[in-house]
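A quick aside before the break. I want you to see a complete sequence-to-structure record at least once, exactly as it would be stored in a machine-readable document. Don't worry about memorizing anything.
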Amino acid sequence: MADEKLSPYPGVEQTFVEGKDGALPALVLEHADDADEAIKAFEGHDGERLVLDEPTNKRLLRKIDQNILPLLCVVYGLNYLDKTTLSYASVMGIKKDIGLVNDDYQWLGSMFYFGIAGYVAWEYPTNRLLQRLPLAKYSSFCIIMWGLVLCCMAAVKNYSGAIAVRFFLGIFEAAVTPGFALFSSQWYTTKEQGTRIGIWFSFNGFAQIFGGLVAYGIAKGAAVHGSSIAPWKVVFLVTGLLTATIGCLFLFFVPDNQLNARWLSKDDRRLAVERVRINQQGIGNKHFKAYQLKEALLDPLTWAFVLFALTADIPNGGISNFFSQLIVSFGYTADQSLLYGTPGGAVEVVSLILCGYLGDRFGNRILISTSGLIISILGMVLIVALPLSNDGGRLAGYYLTQASPTGFVALLSLISSNVAGYTKKTTVAALYLIGYCIGNIIGPQTFRPKDQPRYVPAEITIICCWAACLVDLLFIWWYCQDQNKKKAAFRAQPHYRKMENQEWLDLTDK
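That is the input. The structure line, written in tokens, reads:
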């Protein structure tokens, strides 16, 4: 694969050059007894190597897709829906009802990601908890709690109350993206992960369609028949209760790993672990390893990922909180903005699934993902350049901007498939999502009240950010190609050997 380092990637065994005395490097030996959870599947089967034929592998993949993927998709869609309910509420009366003035709404949008102990500071601790605690159980707890917290938005009376709720909402939702990346690396081979991550991430788009239709229905129903509570409160209650209910289903149906999957037989559990041996990453290690933390912090690729996440999510933070108001600025009514925002979700779904599939198909996730950013830049140029009178053209431009997440998802899938060592993987994921959070904090602040209705400075900022993201993606692609060459030279050395069950020793990709 052109955009992936050779080890621990598909079909390539990780090997180690012997020292002068033929011994393995000290670092490998030091951590060889701290094996991955996967090793438990082979206790009592020393020397036995399972062989999966293609029909069995397809049967297992189908069973995993049927039992894991649907709930990942629904929960991730709700994750996006719960964040964007604020955008719907902004044109349904929340500003007036709780007394938002000046830039209060901008800070309400940022607060989800902001705070000394909020999403930003909580991202690394929650990644450590994802490593330390049972993955599915901790994820379920966070899903249920964020649903209940979201319901509390219906009870807020003022700006301070809304700030507090958004703060805690960010804490509980911080576990979702890194947790789902771990699920993907745990259950799927590297050749399968790009497509699957693209599928569950694409439910952001389905959520935008669903959320827009629900918000429009509530707004129109309240206008025609009246409502005992404000329509925007109904939106928060519906989405919050739905999320908590799905969280309970997630707790019951999703296993922590292959070893306690109730829908797999005992033999199939071992086979499900064996099928991801090729990843050379295992299925989880609960021990913190300082050397892996250091390696993550010194890896240039880590910081290229972080820079991309920060830069790409300045536009995301602005658009996700202001898209309803942006559509109103095109000349449409508040109710129309709820309905006309939904096709943008379809653009996101198609672009993510298509790029995910093509990235896995051709082994070049990074370069293929640039297509979404190019389309998004074109869309924003249309919004900036077209006159206010061209409502349809500017709305079409907005739809094109919804292809922008392709790069973010491509890099998320690379963290899932290419970063080995559980402590290193959770560290890189945490830093990547801290960059995501900081970008989303900055994003709403670019939409200043004085710039409405066109918000031209914010729109130009978005174009510049996406252009910078293209440069960063090209650097990552070049860097990985360079690492490919070094790995190839490393493997060409005459003396190397592979330890038994090395795939389960929780070693890094270096």
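Two observations worth writing down. The two ends are 17 Å apart (CA to CA). Residues 190-225 form the longest helix (36 residues). We'll return to this after the break.
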